[in-house]
Amino acid sequence: MEKPYIQHEGKVINTDSKFTHVMAIALDPRTQYKDGVIRCITNREGDVTVKGYVDRSELHRVKGNSLEHFEIGNRLIIKNEKEIIDSLTPQGWDFIGLEDPDIWIDEATNLMHLYFTIPIRPSAKMRDDGERIKIHLGHAVGKDLDSLEMTMPVLMDTVQLSAKEVSIAPLNSKGFRYNLIESRDRQTDTTYSIIKVAIAEDMGRLWKYGDTVFHPKEHNIPWIGGHASPGPLLPKSFINVGEGKLLGIINGREANQKMGDKIKYGMFSVGLFIYDYENGKIDWVSPEPFIQDSEAITITFASQFVETNQGEGILYAHVDDSFVRAYSLNAESIKSLLPKK
Q: Which of 32, 51, 296, 315 is least enclosed, having the fewest CB within 10 Å?
């Protein structure tokens, strides 16, 4: 039997003196996945293995001459970006750049919807007074990457809840979508990254927070014991796991570790899950990680899947929030990792 995945050699995108760290690639299916967007780190303060590091980011265009090699282009221009961001940024707060893009094409209109994280940090004094970062799920729409216009976020930070890292679910039989997002649960001793449903009746207007469908504290799965984030949902043509359900990629991190006055992050790995998109429920999460990159010190985090042939596809993940790697997936071998029906 073939391996469930094969790690490609080298990097999908060559970094340079301008951007030494890139991550979170998102590709346009209408261009055969040759055009897209990537998050580029313009400045990094701190250590990615320790809580408290700060990345400042820009979204840039990428163009590929194959599915294994892309070049970074100009900064993505989004009409109305400044006006929207200014309206979301309270006085004294600091917008640190758009992050973590996801592209979704509306087949009914052929319009492109781009979703992204909008992080806004309070000043140091405000943090001392108890203020915490605001994380909104931003949105822009247009015919293509050349004509995007930003709208208000589809999900706003509510202090208790935040929204990022969206996974777009198919329409259910009721005519809306139970999308998935990464949110948070701040408890006395720690903050967990959790997965929640986001109820979307209109993909370009305000969504609603739904149920929590995965909380690391409530499951005895060590590799995903601290933080959980939804990744790409795989098409039924790649693997069919039943009516109203999809196999998906889930990103999980081990529980944080306290080391003196610092909090050290555990390993972030890529796993599998089965999502009941008809009812907005996660049926199963893999008990072990699916992928840990051979060079990863602390992070392997998947962001994009491309089906290439019957039962074959490429998964893109970023390693240590620094470079993007490709992995070839084999559907028949992956089936052996799934629960028996």
A: 32
Nearest residue to 285 via CA among 299, 266, 271: 271
Per-10-residue mean pLDDT, the chain, length 341 = 87 86 97 97 92 93 95 97 97 96 97 98 85 95 98 96 98 98 92 97 98 96 97 98 98 91 92 98 97 96 97 97 97 94 69
Is 189 buried (19+), middle (13-18) or exposed (0-12) by CB count in 10 A? exposed
* Location of structure tokens 């889930």: 250
Whole-prediction pTM = 0.96
Q: Which amino acid is at 79?
A: K
* Helix (H) or strand (E) segment spanning residue 237: none
Q: Cβ contacts of residue 331 below 8 Å, gap of 6+?
A: 238, 239, 311, 312, 313
- Residue by residue, DSSP assigns 29-93 as GGGTT-EEEEEEEEEEES-TTBTT-EEEEEEEEEEEEETTEEEEEEEPP-BTHHHHHHHH--TT-
Token output for 98: 């758009």
H or E segment and range at residue 140: strand 134-142
Strand pairing of 177-186 and 5-7? unpaired
